Amino acid sequence: xxxxxxxxxxxxxxxxxxxxxxxxxxxxxxxxxxxxxxxxxxxxxxxxxxxxxxxxxxxxxxxxxxxxxxxxxxxxxxxxxxxxxxxxxxxxxxxxxxxxxxxxxxxxxxxxxxxxxxxxxxxxxxxxxxxxxxxxxxxxxxxxxxxxxxxxxxxxxxxxxxxxxxxxxxxxxxxxxxxxxxxxxxxxxxxxxxxxxxxxxxxxxxxxxxxxxxxxxxxxxxxxxxxxxxxxxxxxxxxxxxxxxxxxxxxxxxxxxxxxxxxxxxxxxxxxxxxxxxxxxxxxxxxxxxxxxxxxxxxxxxxxxxxxxxxxxxxxxxxxxxxxxxxxxxxxxxxxxxxxxxxxxxxxxxxxxxxxxxxxxxxxxxxxxxxxxxxxxxxxxxxxxxxxxxxxxxxxxxxxxxxxxxxxxxxxxxxxxxxxxxxxxxxxxxxxxxxxxxxxxxxxxxxxxxxxxxxxxxxxxxxxxxxxxxxxxxxxxxxxxxxxxxxxxxxxxxxxxxxxxxxxxxxxxxxxxxxxxxxxxxxxxxxxxxxxxxxxxxxxxxxxxxxxxxxxxxxxxxxxxxxxxxxxxxxxxxxxxxxxxxxxxxxxxxxxxxxxxxxxxxxxxxxxxxxxxxxxxxxxxxxxxxxxxxxxxxxxxxxxxxx
Amino acid sequence: xxxxxxxxxxxxxxxxxxxxxxxxxxxxxxxxxxxxxxxxxxxxxxxxxxxxxxxxxxxxxxxxxxxxxxxxxxxxxxxxxxxxxxxxxxxxxxxxxxxxxxxxxxxxxxxxxxxxxxxxxxxxxxxxxxxxxxxxxxxxxxxxxxxxxxxxxxxxxxxxxxxxxxxxxxxxxxxxxxxxxxxxxxxxxxxxxxxxxxxxxxxxxxxxxxxxxxxxxxxxxxxxxxxxxxxxxxxxxxxxxxxxxxxxxxxxxxxxxxxxxxxxxxxxxxxxxxxxxxxxxxxxxxxxxxxxxxxxxxxxxxxxxxxxxxxxxxxxxxxxxxxxxxxxxxxxxxxxxxxxxxxxxxxxxxxxx
Lengths: 643, 353
Known about the structure:
The complex is a heterodimer of chains A (643) and B (353).
Chain A: H1 2-77, H2 82-95, E1 101-106, E2 121-125, E3 128-131, H3 143-151, E4 155-156, E5 160-161, E6 169-180, E7 185-196, H4 198-206, E8 214-218, E9 224-226, H5 238-244, H6 248-258, E10 263-268, E11 274-282, E12 287-294, H7 295-298, H8 300-346, H9 362-408, E13 422-429, E14 437-443, E15 448-456, H10 460-481, H11 484-497, E16 505-513, E17 518-524, E18 530-533, E19 536-539, E20 559-562, E21 568-572, H12 574-577, H13 588-598, H14 604-619, E22 628-635
Antiparallel strand pairs in A: 1-2, 1-7, 2-3, 4-6, 5-6, 6-7, 8-9, 8-12, 10-11, 11-12, 13-22, 14-15, 15-16, 16-17, 17-20, 18-19, 18-21, 21-22
Helix pairs in contact in A: 1-8, 5-6, 8-9, 10-11
Chain B: H1 8-18, H2 26-51, E1 54-59, H3 69-76, H4 79-82, E2 85-89, H5 98-104, E3 109-113, H6 114-122, E4 127-132, E5 139-144, E6 159-162, H7 169-177, E7 183-186, H8 192-195, E8 201-205, H9 209-214, E9 223-227, E10 238-243, H10 244-249, H11 251-270, H12 272-285, H13 292-306, H14 320-332, H15 342-345, H16 348-351
Parallel strand pairs in B: 1-2, 1-3, 6-7
Antiparallel strand pairs in B: 3-10, 4-10, 5-8, 5-9
């Protein structure tokens, strides 16, 4: 079931993740683009709104400026003085209801012929005009007088609250009056129009954007003239606000404002709300009108819409995920059942029923294939079980044969503890369970010890059986005949007589006279033995002879040597000289001679162990095809018998 | 000094015109106007009697601002009371001269410039310096670098704004020092003429007009500033003064007032936030424009100006060198004929210091 879950889950996960990604990108891009479009639209609307408002303000301010300017020009051209001047001022004020107070102020320099009073002034009180001239000359160092005088042009003063109510903003529009004496134009005074900004405050307050948007007006110095937060009005400038709130970017915005620029900027307002702001200058006064839109509210509709879309998408994705999971489960469920059944089969329960084939799709085909495979497996395993049983039986029989064969060879050493004049030792390692090599030694009479080494061609069970025959014949005939050539001839005759299978064996047969060390021997095709005499190891030079078995009338010749006390005769089969290393290199006769020479002083048992170890070392675990058999006999002489 | 509740003068003008519009409430206002002072007077009287405090009055140079934070705090935190004084701090401002109030006996103590005191002294009105609050000149000339003014020599022939009376003396001394002939333009209490380019250089107090200029959007690096004290014009400014005859009546009380005032300053500098709140409150009560950042700047600069630069100077003590330097400048300009005796001027001769 784990595989089923895993496929279904993986599939579902991939589909869901991809869907979520696609929707996220789509919705994100939708939101972003909507915002950009909205921002653009709001920027345009804000610009229209601000510029339209500014136009209205400008129209009024410009008209006031025009009145002051016209009056100033009149004063320059015509010789208004004292009474005519005050009349002009009064009538002008009467005609212009936007102006609260109207007057003129003059330089005290007699060259300019200042009128009396030097500051004639009228102001509105209800429907009445009140004449209120000033005579303390303070005007000379006041902004409304000084700025137009020094600049030589119309100037709007920084607004301030009227002290009486403390709530109505007033500003003054002053226009210089020039005096041209023919040489140079000099300012002899100014015309001043005082204006209440109540209408402007109301106008700006009425500019509302969205629910929480607002607008504000800054003076030329950056002072707040109107703002929803009344504490700021006339108390703070946009720069002092930037300083106390540690907002250098606000200062930069403020600098652009007082420089008369206009723009659309993102700005974090005094309540730490992210807003967008559009600002533009009021040209004649240098003031700045700004409208502020809280971003949250501005984008609320887009955000809500996006949230709805995202919600729908989320629900859709959940539904899709469920559907995908259901389909995936449906497809993979038969696979899961099949996997479960297969697991049971894998653990040996071949009779487990595979799920019924309901469809002809891939899963159905797979189930059919599994059914066929299970049948084939069952049959195969039945055969295998039978074969294995047979093999095991043969194996155990072979084991017994091995034991029997081993027990046929003399294996007890020292073999003749009561015969100190010689020593004999032998060993055999079969290449397979049963071997074709064998050795034997036995006394023919108390003086003559017969010893032999044989190698049946072929290996395995046939060789072992042949070896049994050859060994028994050799021993029987050896004890009866007592001469090696006769023994070999006789045994050859017997073996050849009934040799349908054409098997043969090599034999080296020798008889040691234990009294004088004379060795009579005959060879039937076996390897020449090694004589170790006086620390030197050499192959005996002997006739080769023909192997026992194939031809009946083979004649064998006896040869003889005499062993000196201490001489050793080493017999072996080609399992030693033809032992192969992993690189197929033969052990060889040369190595054998060197090993024997090196081991010449060792006792026989030790010597045989040494040779065996050397051969094994050479083979280094490479599988050997031939039995490894050796026999060594050492003559000590009769002196050893009578100490 | 001057503060400039910028536009104050204009505001004043508007006020006078608007007065006539409120005749309807005049009767009520008159009654309140009569009743309130009476009640307050009675309360204060009772209070003073109960506490056994000596009732005195102080008028600072101008309407409430951080320039006078030390006196407000001394009163607010009961420091004056600890010195046995019940101090009523009157509002200064346009049309309210502390000197005139001192002469008329409306107040016992006044904050005046050293130059004013020396000039009055020379004219025969004997004043005693109880404490010198600001030891050096905080006056500066400010110009826009854009107008091509980089050094004092560049002021030659330019339009320079000067305040009226003795306030212009340090600037005149500066101009004389560099042999400059400039067009003197009478400067009122705003820097608008300068901001609009009507003059090339304006007189400014470091703690006030300079910051007002910065808060009108001009960056410090756009301004060329000539701090007079950096040009060798050492002119002690705000000091606490009493009429000599008033001082003689009760020197101990005057000394106590000066000590308590200095302690008020120490408190103000140690607790700037609390002080700022008190200053802003007083400004709102006086209905003058109150910008927190501006008052914060002013309080910080007052600390720079008032706290002694090194351990050898004493807070509030008129330095002999500064006294003589200022006296010499006034003498050379013909403002005074004689420099008064330092010990007499500071009241030391009588107090036996």
